[in-house]
Design a protein that fits this description.
alpha+beta; 11 helices
Length: 255
């Protein structure tokens, strides 16, 4: 007859979402004590992927499965945004050879646990802590094979992309991505622009969106967007665009 411990682990693993991590804190809430977790590990029912996190034996867990555990089990407010969200949604302009960097965005006071930072996911990642946009606005569900994760909508993701431009992400690529975003929601864009705290991001977006000429841009009320005072220099030795009071790369103004 199976022991209570064996029954507990069987039920747990039967309910487990394949391809995702199991957090020690979440297991404790399920009645699996720290000592019992060690017992399960010794008996090869679970495997450690770092202090405080496990996976099922012989099961592969990608960064998305680790992120699922952060979002669903420990409620960490972190999500794929910017270029990563755009790539997941099929809007990345370039095919990148090798290991593509993963961009995870969160509020300023958010820290990722060591097990997630140190595990070999197969992709380098950058944790972007920022308050330029409200924490929960314009996040959508993205389906993987066995689970869903919260990621930025295309509208939010593009603003997050601009936040890291041009120091970490290319403005020309950003514009080329925007030319393919033909179905953005103008009401959502309006809300994000009005709540965005980065003058640079807002001016860049309005300049690029105007040049791209999509139908949705006609519905954006620029007068309701706080654009600050004075000029903004996005790059040194660039071209000054008086209509938006920004200095941009010459290549961008010629597209």
């Amino acid at each position: 007859m199976a022991t209570k411990n064996e029954i507990k682990i069987k039920k747990l693993l039967d309910d487990h979402v394949p391809g995702t991590a199991l957090l020690a804190s979440w297991l404790e809430k399920k009645g699996i004590s720290h000592d019992l977790q060690k017992h399960y590990r010794r008996n090869a029912w679970i495997e450690s992927i770092g202090t405080g996190a496990f996976k099922r034996p012989k099961e592969s867990v990608t960064w998305k499965g680790g992120l699922y555990a952060l979002q669903e089990q420990s409620k960490v407010p972190v999500h794929p945004g910017g270029l990563t969200a755009l790539s997941l949604l099929g809007f990345s302009h370039y095919f990148r050879m090798g290991e593509e960097k993963i961009y995870l965005y969160s509020p300023l006071n958010t820290n990722l646990p060591a097990w997630f930072r140190n595990y070999s996911w197969g992709n380098p990642f950058e944790h972007v802590k920022t308050s330029i946009l409200p924490e929960k606005v314009a996040l959508i569900s993205h389906e993987e094979k066995n689970f869903t994760i919260k990621i930025s909508s295309p509208e939010r993701a593009f603003l997050e992309y601009l936040y890291l431009s041009p120091s970490k992400l290319d403005l020309i690529e950003g514009y080329q991505v925007l030319t393919g975003l033909v179905n953005l929601q103008p009401k959502l864009i309006q809300e994000l622009l009005e709540k965005c705290t980065s003058i640079k991001v807002k001016r860049l977006f309005l300049y690029m969106a105007e040049r791209a000429g999509h139908q949705w841009f006609k519905y954006i009320d620029r007068s309701s967007v706080e654009l600050g005072k004075g000029d903004r220099s996005i790059v040194a030795n660039g071209v000054y665009v008086a209509s938006h009071r920004i200095t941009l790369p010459k290549e961008l103004t010629q597209l």
